[in-house]
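Why should sequence recovery work at all? Because a backbone constrains its sequence more than one might expect. Tight turns favour small or flexible residues, buried strands favour hydrophobic ones, and helices have their own preferences. The token representation captures these environments compactly. In the example below, the structure is given first.
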């Protein structure tokens, strides 16, 4: 097991960006989590392409049905349980309620944790680009729409109201999984850059094949 060298309270296996880059280069399964608008999808897509991991979107593949109808929770959990059994993937999306299914199969957690103003700007850019159309990472029949008050409030209050659930569920279900926090787009870019030059594979990612 990879040991954390710089633990953070609530994240028992926190690792540095350089350590995370080394793990990423040999990982079979990666979870990218965080607040909406922070850049999770872009990072996940880049990881998918660079390391030939299957890209899985929680929004597209698990949560939503056409016309913005959410699947029932038990259906979502059943689909998640099947997807995580695949050998190699990067999973884009938070949903801490399914961490108990996902994290035991995960080699690395990347928590995208940009400031809320950056997240809001990211949502604005997304809406400007896709408004009225279905973006590639969303389920069929779910066109991009203007964010409502509830969604904006979720972003604005993420650290206060949602982050504690992340800490709690990571502590419960992912204590042994290496995790790093990415606070800027530059840090995300550097992670990908550093992952290009790594040591030989170790036992860090020798989980269930």
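From this structural description, the recovered sequence reads:
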């Amino acid at each position: 097991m990879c040991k954390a060298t710089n633990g953070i309270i609530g994240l028992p296996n926190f690792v540095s960006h350089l350590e995370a880059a080394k793990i990423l280069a040999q990982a079979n399964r990666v979870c990218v989590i965080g607040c909406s608008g922070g850049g999770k999808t872009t990072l996940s897509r880049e990881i998918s392409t660079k390391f030939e991991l299957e890209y899985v979107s929680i929004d597209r593949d698990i949560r939503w049905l056409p016309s913005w109808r959410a699947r029932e929770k038990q259906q979502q959990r059943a689909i998640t349980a099947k997807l995580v059994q695949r050998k190699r993937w990067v999973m884009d999306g938070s949903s801490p309620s399914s961490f108990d299914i996902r994290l035991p199969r995960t080699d690395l957690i990347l928590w995208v944790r940009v400031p809320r103003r950056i997240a809001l700007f990211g949502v604005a850019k997304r809406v400007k680009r896709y408004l009225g159309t279905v973006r590639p990472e969303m389920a069929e029949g779910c066109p991009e729409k203007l964010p409502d008050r509830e969604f904006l409030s979720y972003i604005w209050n993420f650290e206060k109201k949602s982050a504690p659930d992340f800490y709690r569920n990571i502590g419960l279900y992912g204590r042994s999984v290496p995790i790093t926090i990415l606070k800027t787009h530059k840090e995300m870019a550097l992670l990908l850059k550093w992952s290009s030059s790594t040591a030989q594979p170790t036992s860090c990612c020798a989980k269930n094949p």
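A few observations help interpret the result. The chain has a mean pLDDT of 91.
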